[in-house]
């Protein structure tokens, strides 16, 4: 029984190292989303940090600030959703069958 427990602990440590490596790789990834046909582009890293916002000059209209705000929100929400989806896909492989919803 004791040998079985040691083996299980080794397997858990191995899985933990793989999870940490996968998480580090996710954090290094770059994500991009745009709105308004490319008028607004938002880039972020896997840590959900916005790294760049690009706004095309022709979309800047002082009489329609709301449209620009909407495009920025749409692109930002899209890039954050991409990060969540990639994180769930990547980290989910470690929790399959463990019944641990919301772990990441």
Automatic annotation (TrEMBL):
Record-level Gene Ontology MF annotations: DNA binding
Annotated signal sequence range: none
Gene3D superfamilies from the UniProt entry: Nucleoid-associated protein YbaB-like domain
Stretches the record annotates as Disordered: 1-24
SUPFAM superfamilies: YbaB-like
Keyword annotations from UniProtKB, A to Z: Cytoplasm, DNA-binding
InterPro entries: YbaB-like_sf, YbaB/EbfC
Cellular compartment(s): Cytoplasm, Nucleoid
Amino acid composition bias (Low complexity), ranges on this chain: 1-14
GO cellular component terms attached to this protein's record: bacterial nucleoid; cytosol
Function text: Binds to DNA and alters its conformation. May be involved in regulation of gene expression, nucleoid organization and DNA protection.
Family per similarity comment: Belongs to the YbaB/EbfC family.
Quaternary structure and interacting proteins, as annotated: Homodimer.
Protein name: Nucleoid-associated protein BN997_00058
Species annotation: Oceanobacillus oncorhynchi
Lineage, broadest ranks: Bacteria, Bacillati, Bacillota, Bacilli, Bacillales
């Amino acid at each position: 029984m004791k040998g079985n427990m040691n083996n299980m602990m080794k397997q858990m440590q191995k899985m933990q190292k793989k999870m940490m490596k996968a998480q580090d790789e996710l954090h290094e990834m770059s994500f991009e989303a745009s709105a308004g046909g490319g008028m607004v582009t938002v880039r972020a890293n896997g840590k959900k940090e916005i790294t760049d916002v690009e706004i095309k000059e022709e979309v800047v209209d002082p009489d329609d600030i709301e449209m620009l705000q909407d495009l920025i929100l749409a692109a930002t929400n899209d890039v954050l959703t991409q990060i969540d989806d990639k994180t769930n896909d990547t980290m989910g492989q470690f929790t399959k069958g463990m019944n641990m919803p919301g772990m990441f």
